[in-house]
Structures are given as structure tokens and as C-alpha cells.
Amino acid sequence: MGASTPRALLRSLLFSYLLSGLLLAATSFALYKFRLKESQVTIAVNMVYILSCALAGFVMGKRVQRQRFFCGFAAGLSYFLVLFAVSFVINREITSDTSRLLTTLAFCVGSGIIGGVSS
Model's pTM, two decimal places? Predict the structure, then answer.
């Protein structure tokens, strides 16, 4: 029997943001220690999004145990929306780079779906 969907979503987001924090700390250490280029940091941040959303989809799919595609989609989209909302509150504006915003959305939703389906 699966868990309730909202509770599973919150749990999956908690795990994914914990993973994000750890991976971003490792990325910042690598940036400091190895003086990475901006393109390398961008790739690392995108990989953090992908891994974190895949984990969120996987955890939510395992908890709910039904409609795993939708669970992964919801987890990835929720991760992106929280990220977007926090960024908006901090910067007080929506980014002008729409293609980067849409790419991040695609990474989050796509990897969330992959995580959900593979659970």
C-alpha cells in the first residue's frame, strides 16, 4: 500500500534538496580548490538538478507505488517551482534568459520522470 501523495511529495523534495545541498557544497569546494571555469560550474549545477530530481522522482515513486510517471513528473516540476520561487524572492525578478529557464525546467521534469519510472 502506498503513502499519501502530498506526504510522499514533501518527503521526496526534502531528500532531493538535501542531496542538492551536499552536491552544491562539493561543487563550491571544487570551484575553490581547482578554480573551475564558468562552463564547468554550469555543467555541475545542471548535473545537481538532474541527480536531485531523479532522486525526488525515485523516492516519490517508491512511496506512492502507482502512477510512477506522474509521480516523477510532479516531483521534478515541484523541485523546479520551489527553485524558481526562491530565486524570484531573492532576486525580485524573473530571469531574462528564457532558454536557460526552460532548459532547467526540462532537466528537472525529465529526470524526475526517469526517477519515478525507474522506482
Answer: 0.91
Residue 57: C-alpha distances to residues 11, 51, 86, 102, 113 (Å) = 11, 10, 21, 19, 6
Beta-carbon count within 10 A of 88 CB: 12
Minimal CA–CA distance to 84: which of 72, 71, 73, 93? Answer: 93
Contact (CB, 8 A) for 116 and 73: yes
Taking only the tens place, the pLDDT of each residue in 95-117 is 778 899 999 999 999 999 999 99
Q: How far apart are CA 12 and CA 99, in angstroms?
A: 27
Distance between CA atoms of 51 and 111, rounded to whole angstroms? Answer: 7
- The kind and range of the H/E element at 8 are helix 5-34
92: cell is 525580485
CA pair distance 1, 66, nearest whole angstrom: 9
At 83 the three-state DSSP class reads helix
| Residue 64 contacts residue 2 (beta carbons within 8 Å) | yes
